[in-house]
Amino acid sequence: MKYPRGWFQVAWSDELAVGDVQPMRYFGQDLVLFRTESGQAVVLDAHCAHLGAHLGYGGTVEHECIVCPFHEWKWDSKGTNVATPHSERQTQRKRVRPWHTAETAGFVCVWYDPSRGVPEWDPPTIAEADDPFFLRPWPLATHIWRDRQLIPQFVTENMVDVSHLKSVHLAARPAVLTSFGEDATRFRAAMNLTVGEGKPPTRITPEGPVTTSLEAVADGMGFTIFKFIDLSPTLYVNSVTPVDEHTSDMRVSMFLPRDRGLDGDKLSDWGRASLAELVKQNERDFVIFSHLKYEPHPPFTPEEQRSYARLRRWSRQFYVDADVRAGVGGA
Questions:
Q1: What are phi and psi of 283, to 5 degrees?
Q2: Which of 6, 85, 137, 330 is 20 to 30 Å from the Cα of 115, by its Cα?
Q3: Topology (CATH level 3) of domain 6-112
Q4: CB 242 within 8 A of CB 114
Q5: Helix ranges (DSSP H) in the chain
Q6: DSSP structural state of residue 125
Q7: Could you report the per-residue pLDDT of 285-310, keeping only the tens digit for each?
Q8: What is the mean pLDDT of residues 90-109?
Q9: pLDDT in tens, 220-250
Q10: Per-residue 3-state assignment (H helix, E strand, C coil) for 273-310
């Protein structure tokens, strides 16, 4: 399965300070991420167009440019050569490919399009990110899994898979899907479920089981944003970014309400327990995902047909025509 088009997270904003340089590999390509002295996050192809040195290993930031560690050629945020220190002439013909990069809600995002087109929609906006009532996720309320055997489609389809909550996540019973549907590049779903049923009280459910509605939205194929209504104001964000055609990095971020009993930016006991539970439940999904052979034309049960087929029809817009003809994202 090829990579879907759209916005994908490559870092948390707060982990990239001014002057930082980070090598990365996403979409089967070597990349470099850096923050200029003015504060701009920039992603370029990793290799210097002079003699191919990797800018992410030993490269440094100078003003608005990254400096190659091999011969000190300087490349600006547009991938243009602006200085060749050991020659009187610059080379405007050779460029390092720049990637469309945006920061939103504390996430550094890149736009991926196999045809290298410009972004066709904005990355997700999250109101909680600008609300002082909520903690910023990084570094206290985040987690990352590197190079996991999964693709974005797996995680997105979990939005409408109510049956797996019992078999994979050990819920007392399957959830009930109450609504689903698309809105351009977003897909929304809601389900009713009971948290903590058949289990002793925990820090998350200190007074016993809680019946709640899980409301989720897929923002493209790179982000899934969800909240447990009636359980907590906490907002959860899953992001999945392909490393290659079979593996991805997955990040989770929690926008938690501040605990008034704690000074400063500190994670409450409830927050720590909630993050630990989120990590545990994702690990259970990974057991399935790491051995999953994607079935483009499954024999859906009558109960699955409408929601699964609708989500897969929606997902087709993010793949190139050849992938759609091959069944990727098809019903």
A1: -60, -35
A2: 330
A3: Rieske Iron-sulfur Protein (2.102.10)
A4: no
A5: 152-157, 164-167, 269-289, 302-315, 321-325
A6: -
A7: 999 999 999 999 999 999 899 999 99
A8: 90
A9: 999 999 999 988 899 999 999 999 999 999 9
A10: HHHHHHHHHHHHHHHHHCCCCCCCCCCCCHHHHHHHHH
Q: Is residue 181 pLDDT above 80, yes or no?
A: yes
Long-range contacts from 91-98, C-beta under 8 angstroms, 24+ separation: 91/49, 91/50, 94/49, 94/50, 95/49, 96/44, 96/45, 96/47, 96/48, 96/49, 96/55, 97/44, 97/45, 98/42, 98/43, 98/44
Report the alpha-carbon angle 206-140-30, nearest 5.
135
Report how far residue 290's alpha carbon sits from residue 149's, in angstroms, rounded to the nearest whole number. 5
DSSP H/E element including 45:
strand 41-45
Residues 6+ apart with CB under 8 A from 256: 134, 135, 137, 141, 234, 267, 268, 271, 274
